Amino acid sequence: MNLGEHFSEDDKNQFVERNLRPSHVIKLFCRTTTPPKEKRLVIASINPELLIFIINSEIPRFYEKKPYLKNQQIPLTKQKENFLDHDSWLDCSEVFREFNIQKVKEILLADTSRVLGRLSDEVIAQLMDVVSESETLEQRHINQIISDIA
After folding, report:
1. pLDDT at position 2, please?
2. Mean pLDDT over all residues of the chain?
3. Which residues form the domain of 128?
4. Among 44, 129, 28, 59, which residue's Cα sits nearest to residue 95?
5. Is the CA virtual torsion 98, 29, 87, 22 positive or negative?
C-alpha cells in the first residue's frame, strides 16, 4: 500500500522535496541496466544536474580484477541500512545519468513508496572519502558531489 495516496498534493510535494536530496535512496526502473530492472539508487547530487550511484547485490565480476574499481564499492548491510532487502554494494565508480530531476520528481510524486530512506552517516562519510579519491569520476562530478553532500 502506498501511504502517499492518502496525502494532499501539497504534502506529497513537500515529502518529495525533502527526500530528493543527496544521500537519499530511491527506487526506479532503469532501462540502461542489463537487464533493465528496478534498482535502488543513491542520489549523489542534484545541483546543477542529477547524479546517481547504483546499489548492486554483488560487485560485478570484472571489478574484482581491477582494484581501482573494487575500491570504489562501499558495503551496505541490511542491518544498518533499513531500505535494503539484503546486504549490497554502493557503486561509486561511475555516476548514473539516465534520469533528469524533473522526471524523477514526477515518478516519486506518482508513487511516494519509491522514496526508501537515507544512507547512514557512516556510509555517507565513506562515500565522501571514496568519491574524493576516485580515479574514474570526472573532477567536475567529484566537486559537485562533495559540495552537494557536505
Report:
1. 56
2. 93
3. 3-149
4. 44
5. positive
The yes-or-no verdict on residue 113 having pLDDT over 90 is: yes
User: CB atoms < 10 A from the CB of 63, how many?
Assistant: 19
CATH number assigned to the domain comprising residue 67: 2.30.30.110
Q: Is-contact 19 8, C-beta < 8 A?
A: no
Question: pTM of this prediction?
Answer: 0.93
Ramachandran category for residue 117: left, alpha or beta (phi over 0 → left; psi -120 to 50 → alpha): left
Three-state SS string over the chain comes to CCHHHHCCHHHHHHHHHHHCCCCEEEEEEECCCCCCEEEEEEEEECCCCCEEEEEECCCCHHHHCCHHHHCCEEEECCCCCCCCCCCEEEEEEEEECCCCHHHHHHHHHHCHHHEEEECCHHHHHHHHHHHHCCCCCCHHHHHHHHHHHC
Q: Is the pLDDT of residue 1 over 60?
A: no
Average pLDDT over residues 89-108: 95
- Is 8 exposed, middle or buried (CB count within 10 Å of its CB: 0-12, 13-18, 19+)? exposed
- Rounded CA separation 54/52 (Å): 7
Structurally, the chain folds into a number of domains equal to 1
